[in-house]
Recover the amino acids of this structure.
């Protein structure tokens, strides 16, 4: 397992460091494939999204999602993923308006280790204000504000009891242990 | 560089994520990718609904590889109109439709004022125009 940078911003005054785990068996053309890239590829893959929402139709039918259609749910994920990528690239490239932004300006920590894009950055919410965020990134924040992404998921259930979400909890524990072995401390200094 | 960054850089073994490049492609091509996505969903539903149909059969029917169909249903292929027409015919499903526009309305030269020199356009009851072809390639 290795950890690679998604992007690293060198000027320390505007620190913005995002890293991703590459799991042992994930390789593409001989190169390690990081989980962050894989997630965004999945969140833009209709075949995956179609199967995912068909499998989780019961969650969409819940009062929270008001029986949202599979088609709408796919649009929701595509829009949200696009907003996420646009904001992150703006920070990475220091585009006008994003010169001083940091990860904490766009990532909202919902629970410990669970992040989503802050609502004000969701362009689709302007057109569809009733829509809620479905995408989650799971990660560990380090002492100096770096975030290591360990995984992510489409979260449309209230609890973390779905198999794909339980897997994410396992990954967090695995990476915490790995970092501990490497002598790297989390923000809380606990790991 | 901070201590943590130094340690992480050592752990990266010199690799860097490909995400930025992939994200740029998706951001730059957002509009046609969404068209592709909408077509992909309809293909997936049509395969599911057509008895005995699967991706491999669809590939054989339109003369492409199964790998190509696999890419198409990911919604990330810049499909040609020719390919869309072949897919549409093979699956017997409309993959593109066009909204009514000014010149799709019937012409009526007799308006209420009695003047006959200004053509009036009446809306058609059907608001879209489908290009679903039959097996002979005819509408």
């Amino acid at each position: 397992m290795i950890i690679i940078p998604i992007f690293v911003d060198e000027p320390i005054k505007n620190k913005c460091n995002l890293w991703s785990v590459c799991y042992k068996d994930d390789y593409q053309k001989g190169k390690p494939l990081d989980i962050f890239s894989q997630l965004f590829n999945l969140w833009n893959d209709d075949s995956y999204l179609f199967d995912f929402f068909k499998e989780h139709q019961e969650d969409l039918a819940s009062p929270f999602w008001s029986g949202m259609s599979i088609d709408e749910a796919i649009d929701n994920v595509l829009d949200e993923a696009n907003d996420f990528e646009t904001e992150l690239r703006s920070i990475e490239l220091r585009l006008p308006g994003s010169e001083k932004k940091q990860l904490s300006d766009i990532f909202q920590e919902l629970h410990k280790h669970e992040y989503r894009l802050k609502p004000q950055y969701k362009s689709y919410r302007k057109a569809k204000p009733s829509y809620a965020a479905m995408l989650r990134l799971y990660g560990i924040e380090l002492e100096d504000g770096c975030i290591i992404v360990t995984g992510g998921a489409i979260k449309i259930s209230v609890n973390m009891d779905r198999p794909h979400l339980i897997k994410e909890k396992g990954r967090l524990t695995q990476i915490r242990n790995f970092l501990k072995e490497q002598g790297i401390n989390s923000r809380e200094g606990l790991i | 560089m901070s201590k943590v960054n130094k340690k992480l850089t050592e752990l990266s073994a010199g690799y860097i994520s490909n995400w930025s490049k992939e994200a740029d492609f998706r951001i730059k091509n957002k509009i046609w990718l969404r068209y592709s996505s909408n077509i992909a969903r309809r293909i997936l539903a049509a395969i599911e609904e057509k008895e005995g149909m699967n991706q491999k059969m669809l590939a054989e029917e339109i003369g492409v590889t199964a790998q190509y169909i696999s890419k198409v249903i990911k919604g990330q292929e810049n499909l040609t109109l020719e390919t869309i027409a072949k897919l549409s015919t093979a699956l017997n499903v409309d993959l593109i439709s066009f909204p009514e526009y000014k010149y799709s309305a019937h012409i009526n030269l007799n308006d209420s004022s009695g003047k006959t020199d200004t053509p009036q356009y009446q809306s058609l009851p059907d608001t879209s125009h489908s290009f679903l072809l039959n097996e002979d390639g005819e509408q």
Observations:
- The first strand of chain A starts at residue 2 and ends at 8.
